[in-house]
């Protein structure tokens, strides 16, 4: 459910959400955890990317996942096969995770495990290219995914998500030969709304680009821990 | 912007939206217009479907489009090439069209044209598989699109949209050989949340299934006009 026209109330809601996000981030910082917030349209490949990431990085980083879905634990169950804690949050009618929901996930994680033993918490948001971009959950960086099948124009038509993203993955590049898209044009459109974003082209099917993504995740996790409270890790990683 | 937890306020907003939707529908009924509301994730092919529909049906139906996008008139400009009136609505930060925005579109249409001369108004909603499903805009039927590239599990994970749809199009079937999806499983998952939905498999690239979709649009438009105010056209078309 949404409210769109009561700007005063909307600002208050976003303020309240921001306070919750700051509280969550304070917990992460206290425990030396880096948190990434993964966002995209439904079916752009967030869960597939997480599967590859958990498989590739589990020897070097201790990870947990906070998995947001309106209903079901289908994605959570897929990720549990990788032996990491997966906290499932069902948002019900809500189209995005907010900081209060994620706070519930963090407290469950801290109750069942030693939170200070984790390096990285990966939040998979509800599949939605619009709403999650406005609700910070306590992450240190926002990661957006855009599938090649969604078309070149999406960064221009849904600018908020692309403007907010610290890292953007163009996914399913293996399908590029079968759809009428120009990857350079997608990149140009992304850069038009967000010149500073870190950008990768990936395919979880062929493996294209995944090593660069893994390197970025490793870097930001290491740097985040070293600089907690003193600097923006994104300034160091870039 | 959204509000999610204040259930009382949420209900009021939806009530207000519903009143506006009923008002819009009363206008459509008065003018003998059928209105369809097209909804899907970004990039599932709403605009491409509209292009084919405008091209195929313009000899038999007088059509107009109300085109919702957060920003830009990219889609509206694509559709204007087909010689029909296209009213562009930019929703700004809002993730869906609501009945008030569509009322503005209807009034612009009625101001510039004789509204009673139209048979069919096609509303293209903002690309979002979650939020538009909750906000009726005055349509006589809801049409949802799901691309094969989004995966089989989406009807289960985003049930509201699939439960609300009167007609569901599984799009981009030409890409099915290149993605790991079972079309029968998609259909089974759709039927699980909505056994009565009318379902088509289409590809705007190969033309598969489009004739069946055109027939459905023609039928509902004819029946809607004949039965305005006396019956639910969907009961007759099925």
What's the SSE pattern of chain A? HEHEHEHEEHHEHEHH
Largest sheet of chain A: 7 strands, parallel
Structure classification of chain A: alpha/beta
Largest interface: A-B, 49 and 49 residues
* Strands of chain A, count: 7
Oligomer: homodimer
Give me the number of helical elements of chain A.
9
| End-to-end distance of chain A | 38 Å
| Strand line-up in the sheet with most strands of chain A | 3-2-4-1-5-6-7
* Fraction of helical residues of chain A: 40-55%
Mean pLDDT level of chain A: 92
Q: From the alpha-carbon coordinates, what is the Rg of chain A to the nearest angstrom?
A: 17 Å
The percent range for strand residues of chain A is 15-25%
Weakly predicted, low-confidence segments of chain A:
1-6
Large-scale geometry of chain A? globular
Secondary structure topology:
The structure is a homodimer of 238-residue chains.
Chain A: H1 7-31, E1 34-39, H2 46-57, E2 63-69, H3 74-80, E3 86-90, H4 99-112, E4 120-124, E5 141-147, H5 154-157, H6 159-164, E6 167-171, H7 183-193, E7 198-201, H8 210-227, H9 233-237
Parallel strand pairs in A: 1-4, 1-5, 2-3, 2-4, 5-6, 6-7
Helix pairs in contact in A: 1-4
Keywords:
alpha/beta; globular; seven-stranded parallel β-sheet; 238 residues; homodimer; 9 helices
Describe the protein.
The structure is a homodimer of 238-residue chains. With 238 residues, the first copy, chain A, is α/β, with parallel strands linked by helices. Helices cover 43% and strands 16% of the residues of chain A. Chain A contains nine helices and seven strands, in the order αβαβαβαββααβαβαα. In chain A, strands 3-2-4-1-5-6-7 form a seven-stranded parallel β-sheet, sandwiched between helices. In chain A, strand 2, helix 3 and strand 3 (86-90) form a beta-alpha-beta unit. The longest helix of chain A has 25 residues, at 7-31. The N and C termini of chain A lie far apart (38 Å). At the A-B interface, helix 1 and helix 5 of A face helix 1 and helix 5 of B.
